[in-house]
Amino acid sequence: MANLTLYHAAPSRSSVVRWMLEELGEPYDLHVLSLAKGEQLAPGYLAVNPMGKVPALKHGNVVVTEAAAICTYLADEFPEANLNMPIGDPRRGAYLKWLFFGPSCVEPAVTDRAFPRQEEARRGMLGYGDFDTVIDVLAKGVASGPYLMGDQFTAADVIIGSNLRWGMMFNLLPKQPEFVAYVGRLEQRPALQRAAAKDQELAAA
Ligand SMILES: N[C@@H](CCC(=O)N[C@@H](CS)C(=O)NCC(=O)O)C(=O)O
Question: Ligand 1, atom 13: nearest CA belongs to which residue?
C-alpha cells in the first residue's frame, strides 16, 4: 500500500493531481469514485472531503483537498522532484501567484463566461476582474517559456497548464498561439502522457 492515495474520478479535476503525481514519480494508490453514481456524496467520502468533490489526497494521516492546494503540498513535501520554489527563493512569489491564479482567477473567469450571470457584476467585486484581463495576464505569463518559471517546470505549470488545456479543449478559452504552443510543450511531457493514457483507460472501463 502506497503512502499517497488519490480520491479520483476520470476525467475530472482530480486528473490534474494525477498528472502532478506522475510528475512526482512517487507510488500512489487510487480510490476511484463514480460521480455519476453520487459516490462523492456518500458519508464515508464526505468524512474525507465535506465538499463532496474530487480530488482529495491522503498522505499518511494528512488529508488535503482542492487541486491547487494538493499540488502545492506535494511539491513542497517532495522537494527532490524539483517541482516547487522553496521558501527563500525570490521566484517563490511569482510561483505562488500562478498557483493561486488558477483557482481564484482563471476558473471563475471561465465558468462565469460559460454560465453568464443575469446581472453584470461590478469589476471591482469580482476577484478575477474581467475575462479579457485574465487572458492577457495568462498570455504574457506563458509567452516566453518554456514554462511559467522559465526553464524549470513546476507545480504552477500543472495548475495553469491544466486550466489552459481543458479550457481550450472545451472551447472555453481562446486558442491563442501562446496558449497552443505552451500546452503543446506540456503535452510532450511523459508524465502528462502517462496520466492521460491511464485516465482514458479508467474512463473506458
Ligand atoms: N475547487 C475544487 C473543485 C473540485 C470539483 O469541482 N470537482 C468536481 C469534478 S471536476 C466534482 O467533484 N464534482 C462532483 C460534484 O460536485 O458532485 C478543486 O479545485 O479541487
Answer: 53
